[in-house]
Amino acid sequence: MTETPPAFDEMNDQGGTRAPYAGIARYLEAAGEAALEKKRLDAEVLFRRIGITFAVYGEGGDPERLIPFDIIPRVLGRGEWDRLARGLEQRVRALNAFLADVYGPGEIIKAGKIPGPLVLENELYCKHMRGFVPARGVYTHIAGIDLVRTSADDFYVLEDNCRTPSGVSYMLENREAMLRLFPDLCATHRLLPVSDYPEELLETLKSIAPANCAGDPTVVVLTPGPYNSAYYEHSFLADEMGVELVEGPDLFVEDDIVFMKTTAGPQRVDVIYRRIDDDYLDPEVFLPDSTLGVAGLMRAYRAGNVSLTNAPGAGIADDKAIYPYVPEMVRFYLHEEPLLANVPTYLCEREDERAYVLDHLHELVVKLTHGSGGYGMLVGPHSTAEQRADFAARIRARPNDYIAQPTLALSTVPTLVDGGIGPRHVDLRPFVLTGREVRIVPGGLTRVALREGSLVVNSSQGGGTKDTWVVEDEPDPSQSQSQSQSRGGF
């Protein structure tokens, strides 16, 4: 079995504790295992009381489960974060430019920078968006960019999420939990706040309202319903923004205008934050038997009478077969060098790269190009000969469906586990909002692989989450002024 290289420890390096973690190190040394275990149990009670769950299907029994929350925060320095934020903004600008181009003139294809069939024949390419320009020319208004770290200076983009990225509610609730459980520890750090995300989300949504919108735009969150795995997040965000949470039957289209049914009669809807996949949005255009969407919604959208977030067809920008070309998008559209690097990626549709992948399955991570949630993935160094043989057969049968990447040594952070504190691998999903302007709350959702040695952080695969702190500078133990970020809600 091939071993992955040693992982970068975000808390400690050869010189001792790294500066952003100085206050955490002091706290952990003083607290003791019993006190930490009590805090962990308190956190579990808190999360269970408010019902923060994530549905996991296909395993039998009750699909609702509590997402494990680790009480030891992941900490980034302000300088580290500022460099990341610049790279994130650049990348999302390029992704939006790519979407505008491939649904418009197709200049990047004409220039030979990306193969036309890879885009135009991709099942995620939405032909109904050809020639249509949404409000402000923005296609992916809410992007979740998954990052992994391999050293003090090196972050890599693992994948882009341009359709309906989830997890921001857990980012917000994790911070609220830390403020309640560790008020003194939080007060001794100059934490950059995340609590204004719902306000910034609402401002972003309002800023892309149709040009013919009169007065304050009416915004709704469209959910598939309570059986969706992220329903908690849908209801949470609607509540935090102070807007209606609706399902398909709550809306109807008349004269190419979307209306919401209310006790006071129909009310026009201007912006829909949809958490429904493209195929289910409108039975007139997509799946005819869908009951989750709204008949006529695409007519209203193309008529310029309603805005959809994110735009249908935005998924072509986060397809894993498109991902290797994002650095070239940055150069082509922005005339800049990428600030964030990709993980080297092999496209199994290419004969030479497929041959390499098949010969090195024991070293690589293999993913479905349209996969998500950690499903349909092979982690070569942790796989069996039988699993590798199975994936080799899949790749040979449908090479276009797979990519492969080197097994990176994801950084580790201290995590409370059975027997004390141990290092566990993490990734980071910051959320980028694009409307009239680009907004990024400092931090994001840190996902942690709770099984020792595991590199799979997805909640659907047994991973947990942590609060992500961006700190201004070295913690000051003498600081006594309490930080106030409470939003209520507990």
Explain this structure to me?
With 490 residues, the protein is of the alpha+beta class. Among the domains are: 211-305, 3-Layer(aba) Sandwich (Rossmann fold), CATH 3.40.50; 344-407, Dna Ligase, domain 1, CATH 3.30.1490. Helix content is 29%, strand content 22%. It contains 13 helices and 25 strands. It has helices at residues 22-31, 33-50, 78-102, 107-110, 116-120, 168-181, 183-187, 197-207, 231-241, 297-302, 326-334, 351-359, 385-397; strands spanning 12-13, 16-17, 53-55, 64-66, 69-77, 142-149, 155-161, 219-222, 244-246, 251-254, 257-260, 267-268, 271-274, 307-309, 341-342, 346-347, 364-368, 378-379, 402-406, 412-417, 420-429, 431-434, 438-440, 445-448, 464-471. The strands form seven sheets. Strands 5-25-24-21-20 form a five-stranded mixed beta sheet. The protein has a five-stranded mixed beta sheet with strand order 15-7-6-22-23. A hairpin with a 3-residue loop joins strand 22 (431-434) and strand 23. The longest helix is centred in the N-terminal third of the chain and has 25 residues, at 78-102. The radius of gyration is 23 Å and the shape is globular. It starts with 11 loop residues before the first strand and ends in a 19-residue tail after the last strand. Residues 56-62 and 475-490 have low confidence and may be disordered. Residues 478-490 have a biased composition (Low complexity). InterPro entries: ATP-dep_Glu-Cys_Ligase-2 (IPR051680), CP_ATPgrasp_2 (IPR025841), UCP005522 (IPR016450). Residues 73-449 form the Circularly permuted ATP-grasp type domain. Residues 457-490 are annotated as: Disordered. This is Putative circularly permuted ATP-grasp superfamily protein.
